[in-house]
Backbone:
C-alpha cells in the first residue's frame, strides 16, 4: 500500500528559499520542524491508501487528465498563515498561493483534474478531499506545539511569481526517510506554457 497525493512541484531555488524562511518564525510559532526543500509542494488532491497493483492505473489516469492543461502562473505574496484556521490549535505554518490572472482558472482546472484521477480510480481519500475548501498553499513546517501567544499577521517578505510547470504524484512516507524527506516523488508530468 502507498499513501498518494497529486501536487504541483516547486522549482528547487524557490523551495530552498521557502525552507529557510520557515525557521525564522520559531519565536512567533513556537518549536517547529521545517520541511526540507524537496518536500515542499502545492497539494492538489489526496488519493489516500492505494494498493501497489493500482499504481500503474493511477499513473495512466493522471497522464491522461493532465495532458494539454496549461501551466498556471502562481504567486507568493510574502504572507504566511497558520492552519487550521479557526478554533482548532494550528498545526502547520504555510505560505498561501494565488493564481496570477485567476480568471484563467488553470489552478482550479488542475485541482479538478487531480480529483478526477482520484474519482476514476476510486481512491479512498476522494470523498473527504472533495468536501474540503481548496486553499492553495505550500506547507513550510509542522508546529511541535501551539504558539506561545496569539499570533498576528506573519510576513516572510518573500514575494515571488513562478510558473507551476510540473504536476507530480507523491508518496507520503509518514516518518522522515533516510534523506530527511517525508515524501517521495514517483512520477511527474510537465505542463505546457501558453503561447499567448
Residues:
Amino acid at each position: 500500500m502507498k499513501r498518494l497525493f497529486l501536487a504541483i512541484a516547486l522549482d528547487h531555488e524557490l523551495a530552498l528559499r521557502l525552507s529557510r524562511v520557515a525557521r525564522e518564525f520559531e519565536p512567533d510559532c513556537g518549536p517547529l520542524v521545517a520541511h526540507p526543500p524537496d518536500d515542499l509542494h502545492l497539494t492538489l488532491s489526496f488519493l489516500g491508501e492505494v494498493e501497489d497493483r493500482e499504481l500503474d492505473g493511477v499513473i495512466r489516469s493522471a497522464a491522461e487528465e493532465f495532458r494539454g492543461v496549461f501551466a498556471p502562473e502562481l504567486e507568493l505574496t510574502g504572507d504566511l498563515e497558520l492552519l487550521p484556521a479557526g478554533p482548532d490549535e494550528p498545526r502547520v505554518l504555510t505560505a498561501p498561493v494565488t493564481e496570477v490572472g485567476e480568471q484563467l482558472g488553470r489552478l482550479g482546472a488542475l485541482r479538478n483534474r487531480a480529483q478526477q484521477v482520484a474519482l476514476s480510480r476510486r481512491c479512498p481519500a476522494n470523498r473527504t478531499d472533495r468536501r474540503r475548501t481548496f486553499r492553495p498553499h505550500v506547507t513550510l513546517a509542522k508546529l511541535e506545539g501551539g504558539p506561545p501567544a496569539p499570533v498576528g499577521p506573519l510576513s516572510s517578505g518573500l514575494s515571488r511569481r513562478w510558473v507551476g510547470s510540473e504536476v507530480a504524484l507523491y508518496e507520503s512516507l509518514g516518518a522522515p526517510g533516510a534523506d530527511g524527506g517525508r515524501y517521495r516523488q514517483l512520477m511527474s508530468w510537465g505542463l505546457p506554457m501558453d503561447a499567448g
In short: Residues 106-120 form the longest helix (15 residues). The chain has a mean pLDDT of 88. The radius of gyration is 17 Å. Helices lie at 12-23, 26-29, 55-66, 106-120, 126-131.
